Amino acid sequence: MYSTLSLLIYIACFLYYNLSAKSRWSDKSKAARYLEQRPKLSKAIFAGIILVCSAILIYVDGLASGIFAMIVYLMCMLSLIVIVFPFRYLRAAHILALYVVSLGFEYLIF
Fold first, then answer.
1. Domain span at 54
2. d(Cα 68, Cα 101) in Å, to the nearest integer?
């Protein structure tokens, strides 16, 4: 569950990063271009994902620790995108592989 929440928060933060005027890259996908041209839709999707993830974390972990965990997730994912994405270190395949590995560990350990 936490792996899926992390992935969803990463996707939401990437949508928000995509709206930035400084985030221009040449090989942008059609979906990213579509969402860049519709900032209200991107912000609505971002807010929806963040609210759903926050509600799940608050339900599972409790009020205080759920809010704190959400703040930590947001700081981590936004920092990861701002620091790593401009260098193109992480592609979609890398993110998917990290998700599958972390999901596997999550189910094996918990």
1. 2-19+27-109
2. 25
> What local confidence, expressed as pLDDT, does residue 51 receive?
96
d(C-alpha 23, C-alpha 108), whole Å? 38
Instruction: Round to whole Å and give the CA distance between 68 and 95.
Output: 24
Burial class (CB in 10 A: 0-12, 13-18, 19+), 31: exposed
Number of domains in the chain: 1
Q: Residue 89's pLDDT is what? A: 79
88: region left, alpha or beta (phi > 0 left; psi from -120 to 50 alpha): left
Question: Which residues does the chain have with pLDDT short of 70?
Answer: none
CA trace torsion 8, 9, 14, 15 (10° rounding): 70
